[in-house]
Amino acid sequence: MPFDVRPLTLPGADCPTRDARAVAWWLLSVAGLVWIMVAIGGATRLTGSGLSIMEWAPLSGALPPLSEAEWTRLYDLYRTIPQYALQNEGFGMEGFRRIFWLEWIHRQWGRLIGLAYLAGLVWFWARGRIPEGYRGRLLLLLALGGLQGAIGWYMVASGFQDGRTAVAPYRLVIHLGLALAIFAALVWTALGLLAPAGRAPPDARPLRRMVKATFWVVAATMLVGGFVAGTRAGFTWNTFPLMDGQLVPDGLLALDPPWRNLTENLLAVQFAHRALATLAGLMAAGCVWAAFRRLPDGWARRAVLGLGAAVALQYLLGVLTLVHVVPVGLGTLHQATAVLVLAAALLALHALRAARAS
What we know:
There is one protein chain. By secondary structure, this protein is an all-alpha fold. It has two domains: 180 residues, no CATH class; 161 residues, no CATH class. The chain is built from ten helices and no strands.
């Protein structure tokens, strides 16, 4: 019996064109590279490696140091910043090489993403294979990728001044937020190409609103998590579910004006992350319950169940990361799994699109 070699599409979708499928899988491949980049960025931050390269050289920086003289020059540059004086003084060339290589890989991966996207865009464009209506969106994604590189340097440069040993939390959140936005745009565009028509039943609309609300709470949790990372708030109050022996600790509004507590008060920042994560978990559980009640067994219901499973996994990893005082492995996995949650939410939203009225 011959093998079935029909092209893979999303269940219940109108069959997309060959060009649409090709562009979609290219975009998903780039999204996968972005996912890995987010994980590498987490490891870079947790190991304090992000400030080891003090030059932004988009072209020449693609090559690592090729001589001892170049290693010495870069090490001498690093020894001028506060992080060296306050954290790493005397760790020698061996210690510098260790943190240098992780940051170099981080930047190289960014270059790889840019090349993969640009090469694919040029190839599909030159052959006229980009589906109608998508050229502007793909150019916008290219511009966002270039902006992300500039913001990455804007973030890193903040760690070289004012006695800092790490980058400014606000700039870290901007960098992380744009990375997540680019990932979401890549995935959503690819899903639209693979399944251009909605197929969910009309009574799924309330559930889609629930999933959309969960998506935005998840997004807010991730951004607040950026402030947890930027302020190193995760290294304090390492108990769960209590903080300082209380469910709602004292001192959440210690700073004035009150809005500063959301980004500068370590107690409030960590509490906000916990509270939003718990809310996201409850909302995802509500979505799963509603999916069993409102949807027949099929693609849409399974997508919602996948969202619930991803949120549960991320919540568990968050608790383990906290109580173990943010080991590099767990912290990196927690950051990478946040992207899984984002992907699951997008997939559920896409699966719950109702058919358009004719």
